[in-house]
Structure formats: C-alpha cells, structure tokens
Amino acid sequence: APAQLFLDGKALPEGFIYGCATSAYQIEGAWNADDKSPSIWDVFLHNKTTNDVTYGSNGDVADDFYHRYPTDIPLFRNALAVQTYDFTIAWTRIMPAGRGALSDKGLAFYRNVIRASNAVGMSNICTLYHWDLPQSLQDEYGGWLSRNIVDDFRAYAKAVFKALGDDCSHWVTMNEPRTFCTEGFGPDPDSAPGVVSTFKEQYTCMHYALLAHAAAVEEFRLGGYKGKIGIKVDGGVSLPLDPSSAADREAAARTMDFEVGRDVAPLYTGDYPPSVLASGALPLKFTAAEKKMLKGSVDFIGLDFYTSQWVTPTKNCTPDSDTYPECTDQFQQDPRTGLDIGRPTASSWNFDAPHATIYGGIKYLAETYNATNILISETGMGVLNETNLPLEQVLEDVDRIAWYRGVLSAMRQALDDGFPLTGFIPWSCIDNFEWTDGYNVRFGLIQVAYDAAGKGSQARHPKLSGAYLKGVLTKGNPINPYNFV
Ligand code: PNW
Prior knowledge:
Layout: E1 6-7, E2 10-11, E3 17-21, H1 24-27, H2 40-46, H3 65-80, E4 84-88, H4 91-94, H5 104-119, E5 123-127, H6 135-141, H7 148-164, E6 170-175, H8 177-184, E7 185-186, E8 195-196, H9 199-223, E9 228-234, E10 237-240, H10 246-269, H11 274-278, H12 288-294, E11 300-304, E12 308-313, E13 328-331, E14 343-344, E15 351-352, H13 354-369, E16 374-378, E17 383-384, H14 391-395, H15 398-416, E18 421-424, E19 441-442, E20 446-448, E21 460-462, H16 464-475
Parallel strand pairs: 3-4, 3-18, 4-5, 5-6, 6-9, 7-8, 9-11, 10-12, 11-16, 16-18
Antiparallel strand pairs: 1-2, 12-13, 14-15, 17-19, 20-21
Helix pairs in contact: 3-5, 7-9, 8-9, 13-15, 15-16
The structure holds 4-nitrophenyl beta-D-glucopyranoside (PNW).
Protein name: Glycoside hydrolase
Family: Belongs to the glycosyl hydrolase 1 family.
Keywords: Glycosidase, Hydrolase
C-alpha cells in the first residue's frame, strides 16, 4: 500500500491521490520519431511565423521526454515523493492515421512509461487526449467540428483500453474541452487548429467533445476494466463584482453555468444547465439516447482550477459581441478600486486567489452537482523568464511556494468542511512547453535548463516548491510557516 499522506500534519484518508501532471505535446518532443504522425499542434506551430509564439518556439524537442523518461520518472518520484504520475497519450503515436492500424512503437513507449512509474512505486493517471489531434482528421472533416470525431475517438479509446486498460488506476478521457474549443476556434483563436469562426463553432466543438467523452466511457465500462474513469474540466470561479447586488450575483451564477456547468452538467444530469438551454445560443441539442449516455459518465471529476474572476451583467450582448452568450463583463482587476483579485502571475489570465478558486471550485461542484469524487487535477503558477535569473534564485521559488501554501490551505478547509476532495495533482512535474507562452513561462516543480527558445543542456534541477510539497504531503509538515525542509 502507498505510504500515508498528510495535509497540514493531519493524515489524509486512504486512497487520497498525490501526483504530478504533464502532457504529451508539452514534454515529449520527438515530434516525428518512429511512427508518429503530425498533430494539429505540430502543424499549427510549424506554420507560424517566428513572432507569433514567443521566440518562435514549438514542441518539436520540448523536454525530450520521449528519450529521457527512464531518468525523468524516477526524478519525479524522488524530488516530489508523488505516488502517481499523471501523463497524457499522443493519439498520433498510437494510431498515426487517426483511425485503423496501431503503432507497436507508440504503444511500447506508453507501456514503458507505465512500467517505469510502477518500478519506482507510482501508479498512473492516463489521459487519452490533451489537445494533440491527428492532423489527418482535421484535414479530412474538420476535427472537433464534425460528428465523425465521436466515432473516431471511441475507436481510439477502445484500442488504447484494450492495450493498457488495466494498467492505469485512473483514466481521463480528455483535458479541458472548454479550453481547446474556445482557444482553437472562435473570433480570435490562438491555439490549434486556429480556425477563425464564431461562438457557434466553439459550442459545436464542446458538444462533440462531450459525446466523444461519453463514448469512450461506454467502451471502458463495456470492457470491464478495473480502474476509474473521468474527465478534467477547467474554468475558474466567477464571483459577483458587488456581492450586495442581485444582478451581479445572478451574473456570477450564470457565468458559472456557461463556463463550468456547460461541461459538467451533462455528465451528472444528462443535459446542459437550464440557463444555457434557455439562452437559445446552443447550435446543437442532445438526443434522448445521448442524454442517457452522458448522465453518470464519470467516476470522478478533475478540476483544473487556477484562478477566479469578478463579473457583472454586460450592457452590450448581441451574438457578435465578445461576451456572447454569457453576456457578462469579467474582471480580474476591480474597475472601481483597481484592486486585483489576487497576486498577478506571469500568465495574464492567472491570478493567485486560492480560497475563491480551490475552495470555491470544490464547493460549487459538490453543491451544484452532488459530485462525490473531486480531484484538484491541475493547479499551478508560471514564472516569467526563469532562465534569465541565477540558478539559485530560480530553484528557490518562494513565489510558487506561496501559491501552493494557498492551495493547500484551501484544500485543508474543504476537507475539514466535509467536501469530497480525493486528490491533488499540481501542474506540472517539470518545466515544459507552455503553449502560446512557449518556454518563457515555467510551471514546473523541477527546472529544465533551456532558454526561452527551448535551447539548452536539458539538465534537470528540482525547485524548492517541490521539496515544500513533498514535506507537507508526505512528511506531515505544517502548511505554514516556512519550516518545510
Ligand atoms: C491548463 N484558465 O490549461 C492546461 O491543461 C495545461 O496544458 C497548461 O500548461 C496549464 O493550464 C497552464 O497554462 C488551462 O484560463 C489554461 O483558467 C487556462 C485556464 C485554465 C486551464
């Protein structure tokens, strides 16, 4: 059995998960090694001109994890004392044509990752999809904008389960449908596939993503595999700008429905939240059979919750306005006082507001959807340009420790108040390719020696934040004060 875990000196319940997370495109590199085909992220970034993404970098090499996993995986275990390694599978390695034949080399790679984890006493959370769709499916039918994706995702999931189904304690069908659909499509997309479109395409993508999730869960359950299956959803918490205003409170509830409930409600109730249905904005509806398939399609829910915002009703709400169909104005700086919702970080969207975000996110899921198994499946903070600082200063990452102190305190309170929090998985085990911020913004608990363009020795150095988490979670150290080593 895994060793006892703690939070602020108190024993955590048996089965509580403490892991760290990465994703395939962000760490593996080896973009065209062996049988791998190009994903939409490979193509999206290869087609960019140098300045579109920070320093013109991409994930071609990234952390070279494809070759370095034999030493990286034991390092995650030693530096962080995590009991679980949460990784994602590249569809393009396993099924290079998007459907049909499997690659033995692709399967062997992930089998080796699981073996290397098990060999140092870690289990695995395995994710089928973290944004790296085979480009061939994008070219053939527009990827997530077509119902065809549901069948192709089902077949991909079924094949992966057949090969590895019993080898992961937890399966995640996909990472954050909201993010990949709202960043990849819409008026101003900055992520792959970068299709300039409208909110309707964003909602179409999310609709098929939910159905693809449910199809994969159906295959998992039909196969009778041992582990648990769920999904990771993102979205921060929306608070009323003026808590004494009924209109602002209504706007906050509405924004939660549109930004979180829209992905979560179908999993628990079989359909979108009432306010989303009533808006008339949805391009597609679920059939009775689809509702049945969606309802109950998670054993657990992963919250990738980083930050929060204040909202008010918007005065300008037409289908071509930015805020449609939520129709709320959103702020992380109070327009009346100039006060930030929390400490700003290197990511423009990410403010450190742990109580609102972590405690509030867990409470929202538990109270709104009676969720009974909630993981904080990602949270973390980026630091800008760490490579330009002296190494000692990078590794003594007290700002990041402050971030996690807030997160851990909020989790402690959620547990003390009886909410069903069952795991904590910081983002990320190791520095990696931070999408449109390139290598310039680092989220790792372990530093990688490369520059903002991703060039360098690739040496790994554990940061102090990792030692802090290790101390609190596995040695029973207090969350405060700073006597953590
Ligand atoms: C996560 N938000 O996404 C992703 O899963 C990771 O791949 C990524 O590296 C990490 O965040 C850090 O950016 C999110 O705006 C991106 O609330 C943005 C938000 C939430 C999650």
